[in-house]
C-alpha cells in the first residue's frame, strides 16, 4: 500500500456511514465505539447515544434471542465468545426490543484485538442486519412445515393441532382456530405456549365466546372476510373487544400484546378463523406477520377443504361400496381381457359362485352357455367404447311363460380419467317377475276384453279356451254346470292331432261324492295343481270313462283344475294341461284362477243380462197384459200398478204407487190367500166386478185382477133369461092347460059359450106363447146377426094407424090412445115389418106401464129430411140410472112383478136393434111417476 495511513476522524466518518453496525467493546463489556447503524439496530438514534447509555439500562431495552427463538445466554454471544477464546467468532443474534417486542436479527462477527501480551484489548463487532432474510427464512420454513402438515393430514382437527404446534411458540404465543359449523362456531384448537395461560385462555373463551359478541375480532373477520391486525393490543383494542371489565381483566392477565385474526376461506365460503396472539414473549406482529398468517390460513383452508372433500369422497365411496355389495341387482367389473375384477353378491348368486371365486376368471368360463352371446357383446363394448343395453331374447319357452328366467343387462366401458378404456362394468337385473307380471297383466287384460264382449256363456267358454291355449298350456277345457252335470262346453288343443283325443274324453261328469278329484275341484270350489300328473289321477279318469290311450296321446303331464266362480257361486271348471312335466307352479295356478275369475264374472254378467232381458220382457208383458197387475210390498205399499190396472179401475199409477194398499184399495179382498176372489167395486163409470188372485213372493204379494163385469152380466143374462122365460111361459101354459083340461073333462058339462070361452083362452094364450117364442127367436137372430132388415119406402102414417088400431082391440080401461101424423103422410126408408114391430112394442109398453091409465100418444114429426117417431105415456116412468139398461136383453125394472106387470125384457132390446139396423137410434126421456117418452128418427124415403 503506497497511500498514506488513514487518520482516526477519517475512519470515524467511514464507520459512521457503513450500513453494518460496528461496535468496539472493552473486555468489561463497556462500549468504546458504536456507529449509528449499530445504535439503530437496538432502537437508538446514534452511536454516541448508545455509548453514553449505562450498561443495565442498555440491557433493559432488549432481549437477546437465539436462532431457536429462546433467550440467548450472554456467554453464547459471539463477542463474549471472542473475548473468551481470543479468536474471531460469529453467530446469529436476535434482539427483541422492549417494550414493543420488535425483533431484529443480526449476523454478528466479533474479532478480538489482542495486546502485545496476548490479552484481548478490544472486541470489534460487525453487526449485519439480517432481519429481512431471517423473517423470509422463517416464513419459508413455516410455510414449508405447514405444507407438510396440510399434505399429510385428512383429519381437520388433527391438521389444525399440528398447525398450532408449528406456530406456537415460533410465531405466536398462542393460537386459536375456530370453525363455522352450522350457525355456530367450534373452537377446534386452543394452544398457548404456557399451559397455565392456556387454561386462562380457555376460561376466557368459554365465558366470552366470540359468536355471542359481535365486537369480537373473530366475529368481525367472519362477517367481513378482512384480516385483522392489532400491533399493540394494550392501547385500546382490548377494551374494544372486551364485553365487560372482567373480560378486560382476563385479557390483561394474558398480557395480551399483539393480535392477528385471519379468515379461513374455501371456495368463496367463510369456514372459520385462525387467531394468533402474543403476550409474555413481548413480540409484536407487523404487516409481514399478517401476510404470513394470511398465507397460512389460505393454505390451511385449502387443505381443510380438500380434507373435507376427501372425507366426503371417502364417505361416498363407502356408500357406493355398500351399495355395490348389497344392491339387489348384479353388478360386476371386468378387465380388458374379460377377467372378473369384482362382482357383487347379487351377480355372484346369479352365477352360482362366491364373489371371491370370480376374481381372475374369464367371463366365458363362468357364464357357460351364455358365453357365445355375452363374450362378443363385451368385446364390442371394449372396442367401440359405447354402452350396450341388452335384454334376453324371448324364445318359444318364454312365450309360454315357463320356468325361464329373464334378465335386463346394461354394459358400459370403464374409463380412466384420461379416457382410456380399462375394462367393462355391467349391471344385470333379473326381470323374470316383472316380465311374468307384465305377461300376466297383458293376458288378463286381453282376456277381460275378450270375455266382456260376449254375452253368451258358451261363447265366453270358447274364448277362455282360446286364451288359455297356447299361452298357458297345450290343452284347455271348460266345463259348465248344466242340468246337474259338469258339461264340457269348450275344449282346445294346441296340437291339432290331439284335438279329437281331447274331444273323446268324457264330456260330462256327475257331481256325486265319489266323482273323484275332477268333480271335487268343482263342488269344493278348490283349485287343483298337479305339477306332474300322477298315476292315480289317470286311474281315476279311467274310472269315469276316459280312455287312457287318448289321455296319453294328448300327453298331458302337468295339469291345473280351476273352478270358475262368480259371486260365491261355482259356475264351472277350467282345466289347463301341458305336455311338459312341472310346467305349472303356484304362479300359473294364480294366473289361471284370475283368468277363471274374469271368465266367471263375464259369464255371470251374461246370465244377469239374460235375466234382465227376461225381466224386461216380463215388464213389457206387464205393460201390455189385459189383466190388472199390482205389487204390494212387505210394508203394505203398492210398488207397481200396471196400465191395465189403471185402465180398469180408473186409478192413475201416480196416485196409487207408493201409497198404502189398504187406503187406496179399500174394500178389495187383499191378503185373503191365493184363491181368486170376485168382488164389486165402484168403477170409473159403473160398478165393476173384479176377480182378484194373489201370489206371495219374498218381497211381497203380486196381485192380478180382471174385469168380470161383462162376464158377470152375461151370467146374469143367462139366469135372467131362465127365470123370465120360465115365468112368462108358465102363465100362458097354465092357462092353456087349465082350459084344455076343462074341455076334456067328462064330468063337466059346458055350454057353448063356456066352451067358446075356453077355446078363446087357449088360442089367446097360444098366441101369447108364440109371441114370446118369436121374441126370443128374433132376439137371438138379432144377436147372431142373422136377422136383417129390408128397407123400402114405407108409409109411416098408415103403419102407425094400423098399430094403434091393433092396440085399441084390447086396451085396458082408463087408457086412451092418440095419433098425431102430419099431412101428407111422410114416406120413410124403413123395413115395414120391423118398424111395425118397434111401434107395437113401444105402444104396448106405454099402455102396460100406465097401470093407472092415461093418454098414450103416438106422434110422427117430420124434421130436416127425417121423421121423428115419438111414443109418450103418462105412466110409471123410469129412473134416470136405468135409461141405458132398459134396452139390455132381459132387463126389467121390476123383475119380480111387484107392480104386477109381466114381460120378457126383450121388447126394448129388439126395438133398439131394429131401429139401429134401419139407421136410427132409440132414446128415452122419463121422469119416474110422470111417464116416459121413447123416440127415434128414420130418414125420409
Ligand atoms: P118388458 O116390457 O117385456 O118387460 P121391454 O124390453 O119392453 O120388456 O121393457 C123393458 C123394461 O123397461 C120393462 O120391464 C119396464 O120396466 C121398462 N119400460 C119399458 N117401457 C116403459 C114405459 N113406457 N114406462 C115405464 N117403464 C117402461
Annotation keywords:
43% helix; 32 helices; 941 residues; 6-stranded antiparallel β-sheet
Structure write-up:
The chain is an alpha+beta fold. 43% of the residues lie in helices and 25% in strands. It contains 32 helices and 34 strands. The strands form seven sheets. It has a six-stranded antiparallel β-sheet. Helix 6 packs antiparallel against helix 7 and helix 18 runs parallel beside helix 24. The longest helix has 40 residues. It starts with 7 loop residues before the first helix and ends with a strand. Bound molecules: adenosine-5'-diphosphate. The site of adenosine-5'-diphosphate (ADP) has 22 residues, from helix 31 and helix 32.
Query: In which order are the strands of the major sheet placed?
Result: 2-1-6-5-4-3
Summarize the main sheet: 6 strands, antiparallel
Outline the low-pLDDT stretches: 393-403
Task: Bin the strand percentage.
Answer: 25-35%
Name the bound molecules.
adenosine-5'-diphosphate
Terminus-to-terminus distance: 198 Å
**So what's the oligomer here?**
single chain
Derived structural class:
alpha+beta
- How many E strands? 34
Query: In percent, how helical is the residue content?
Result: 40-55%
Which outline best applies?
Answer: elongated
Mean model confidence by pLDDT: 85
Number of helical stretches of at least 4 residues: 32
Rg over C-alpha atoms, rounded to the nearest angstrom: 70 Å
